[in-house]
Amino acid sequence: MEPALFTEAATLIAKTAENDGGFHPPSILEFFPPVVLFEGTPFALTRITLIQIFATVALILIFWLGTRRMKLVPGRFQSIVEMGLDFVRNGIAHDLLGRKDGNRFLPILTTIFFMILFMNLTGIVPGLQVAGTAIIAVPLLLAIISYVTFIYAGLKKSPKKFLRNSFAPSGIPVFLVWFVAILEFISTFLIRPVTLTLRLLMNMMVGHLMLVLFFSATWFFFFTAGGLWSLLGAGTLAFGFAFTVFEILVAVLQAYIFAILTAVYIQLAIAEEH
Q: What is the secondary structure of 40-56 as a DSSP string?
């Protein structure tokens, strides 16, 4: 496509946006929606808060229905639920922590994985179309829970060794202990929870903005610009559907990464050298 056509398209989009002609590019303000219920009270709810509640209720309902009448020969629905639970149990907990410690921390790892998964998937559900993890409250809360669990596991296993090895690993020259202790504190107790939070948050925010961009542009090219611009609309529509499939992969992957990193941190806390 010629550069002039790109310039013409950009000009047309800009003029339409100014005149409210149909094209509404994504904005960061979408993650700060107005209050829709109980405004002015401590229980004020926004659209994203309602989506988070919906995802939580759906998660509880699915697991309740899938486990309330367990059968020796499971039906299709029970089998799907059991496959999900076995994935976390065998693929994350037992694989990294062993059977004994894996079973100890299995409830929290399972909760983290499925809570993130369900809230991530709301980003591609028609009518919801924003992930419950796309605002910082949920990723930050889960990162705090992950780190409280990590510290608890280490202190429970061996308080003195955990603290000593966390701040001053063995083999460090005496004159460098204070410097290494500062670096280890920043790396282990500050940077790790921040990266856990931001990795999940940024992936979900960017995914939402990209989907809004593709489908808003599709609407604009089809119903406002018209003519030959509809060809571009077909392209943005195809990209939108392809990116939706990609977002499903990202939703699962981010839930897996968060849960497996939590398990890795617990494993480091309870390792024999601690």
A: TSTT-EEHHHHHHHHHH
